[in-house]
Design a protein that fits this description.
The chain is mostly beta strands. Helix content is 0%, strand content 57%. The protein is built from no helices and 11 strands. The protein has strands at residues 3-6, 9-12, 17-23, 32-38, 45-51, 56-58, 66-71, 76-81, 90-100, 103-108, 112-117. Strands 2, 4, 5, 6, 9, 10 and 11 form a 7-stranded mixed sheet that branches. Strands 1-3-8-7 form a 4-stranded antiparallel sheet, with no helix packed on it. The chain is globular and about 45 Å long. The chain starts with a strand and ends with a strand.
């Protein structure tokens, strides 16, 4: 599965931005998709995820501000980032988990940079 992220850029504190991740195959066949982020000097962390059944999960730091959604027609998963904070800056990576013979495989995009400015 190839994943391509888009939508990153510079955004002001308190503003909104939406990231998009487009997959090379029908996302209805993927078990889950998610967004992770990595800030400079920090480890990559899970921000939000959504399963094929539309069950969502969010990191505590973004609950109530971010929303993840799936657009099956466009084979895309979106991350709506609202009321962004300085600590939301980082490279955002999309991932997808797919069932494969013998288990599951995780696929990653190359990331898109989000910079929150004060």
């Amino acid at each position: 599965v190839r994943l391509v992220e888009s939508g990153g850029g510079e955004v002001q504190v308190g503003a909104s931005i939406t990231l998009s991740c487009t997959a090379s195959e029908d996302i209805r066949g993927l078990n889950a998709m998610g967004w992770h982020r990595q800030a400079p000097g920090k480890e990559r962390e899970l921000v939000a995820s959504i399963t094929s059944g539309h069950t969502t999960m969010y990191a505590d730091s973004v609950k109530g501000r971010f929303a993840i959604s799936r657009d099956n027609d466009k084979n895309a998963v979106l991350l709506h980032m609202n009321r962004v904070e300085l600590q939301d800056s980082g490279v955002y990576y999309c991932d997808a988990r797919a069932a494969r013979p013998g288990g599951f495989m995780d696929f990653w995009g190359k990331g898109t940079l989000v910079t929150v400015a004060s």
